[in-house]
Amino acid sequence: MTYQTEIDTTSALIQRHNGTWDGISPEAVARMKLQNRFNTGLDIAKYTAKIMRADMAAYDADPANYTQSLGCWHGFIGQQKLISIKKHFGTTKGKYLYLSGWMVAALRSEFGPLPDQSMHEKTSVPALIEELYTFLKQADARELGMIFRDLDKAREAGDTARERFLTNEIDTYQTHVVPIIADIDAGFGNAEATYLLARKMIEAGACALQIENQVSDEKQCGHQDGKVTVPHEDFLAKVRACRYAFLELGVDDGIIVTRTDSLGAGLTKQIAVSNEPGDIGDQYNSFLDCEEIDPATARNGDVILNRDGKLMRPKRLPSNLFQFRAGTGADRCVLDCITSLQHGADLLWIETEKPHIEQIASMVDRIREVIPNAKLVYNNSPSFNWTLNFRQQVYDAWAEAGKDVSDYERAALMSVIYDTTELAKEADEKIRTFQKDAAKRAGIFHHLITLPTYHTAALSTDNLAKEYFGEAGMLGYVAGVQRKEIREGIACVRHQNMSGSDIGDDHKEAFAGEAALKAGGVHNTMNQFA
């Protein structure tokens, strides 16, 4: 519906009330409706699911159409990210939000900072989704409000060309609301608990849920040791629970991202149920580290498997966990991924220990032999030392090609002394093109960084504290922050405007007319930044 159509529709409605609504401005109503086009989180989930499905189809046609996101731990951070994207690139196409369970645990729990072990309140996850979208909708309201004000000025000046331009800007306005991929960890309990949380997350606006195959009560960060996986049937019950939640709420094209931690997980809490040789339970159990035993040597309490007519005793740790054979991680990842896609998953996530395109591709190639359009969400993790990893990759490639590497010490390649070398330059170029190259070679549809804004907040605060509390004093803030905000066009330099002060003034004027007491007058210090 166009701006003028919205005004005309509201005007007709007001006229039907026989003068009792004459104090209502049709144009003010139209503006409020356009500034808040999403009434519920479900409206957002349905809208963004369609965007993400279209992006997935575009990627299938051409892997150059990969998508990206940054993890955001607060609504304001997500808002500023999208404002920045629109400012620099003119569109939000292909740019999402990521909600990291790690950052929820570390920054949003009432218990205080926690490790990524699903100990935080599960309700904090949908609460953050709702908060993120509240801030993104406010970004819409703010930006549209500024266009409306410019439209009023054009009318006052009699500039019809400008008026037509601004009206078209309103009619073609692109919202800051984008898809969010939300981390549901390992489901926070059994399948029913997963379903209940998934429903809350979808109602808050999530169109894509990411769930991992770890044990809920033993869940670990994907880049820490001690990870314990569950048999496929247990995991698939939770995948189905997420799908039921989407379907119940009418988000028929909701996206499920299934994450496998099997590459770095050497343990399982359960032996899978197997009804016949070769079934999925039998395949899971085939990776267990077992020893063949004579029945006469069986010990009290032993768990024993019958495999191909032989009695096998899985190695059980004092923790009562069972151990997988070393070197089976990649094979288990491939099986996990194929099984998930065959049972309702839409996208895959393979958690790796380093950013190595050929390692990822070696697994994706095998998955695509069975499911040709398999594609990944990939964690461009801050847990990787990107500089050292890629310098070592270049070092190894040079050494294999017979190139002289005697000037370099492989284990010390992180050192600043190598920063200007040809090796470092080549490594940096590989980092720069990693997303494009991995999208083409390794089937990665979506690249994300899980917790970048955790690090940027710490880094920027450190820089400010060092200067402000040091010799620079107030110049530490002015030169290091405010002057840069002004010159780089950072919207929140006018922080009153960013927090909604002008939106409130517009509403006050609509509600009270000339009697409105507005904050944005001539004495507002924000006018120094106009």
Automatic annotation (TrEMBL):
Residues engaged in binding substrate: S100, G101, W102, G222, H223, R259, N379, N380, S381, P382, S383, T450
Lineage: superkingdom: Bacteria
Cofactor note: Can also use Mn(2+) ion.
One Gene Ontology term of the molecular function aspect: isocitrate lyase activity
InterPro entries reported for this sequence: ICL/PEPM (IPR039556), Isocitrate_lyase (IPR006254), Pyrv/PenolPyrv_kinase-like_dom (IPR015813), Pyrv_kinase-like_dom_sf (IPR040442)
Catalytic activity: D-threo-isocitrate = glyoxylate + succinate
Cofactor or coenzyme needed: Mg(2+)
Keywords on record: Lyase, Magnesium, Metal-binding
Alphabetical GO biological process terms: carboxylic acid metabolic process
Keyword hit for Lyase: yes
Key word Nucleotidyltransferase present: no
Residues that bind Mg(2+): D183
Active site: residue positions: C221
Pfam families, A to Z: ICL
Name recorded for this polypeptide: Isocitrate lyase
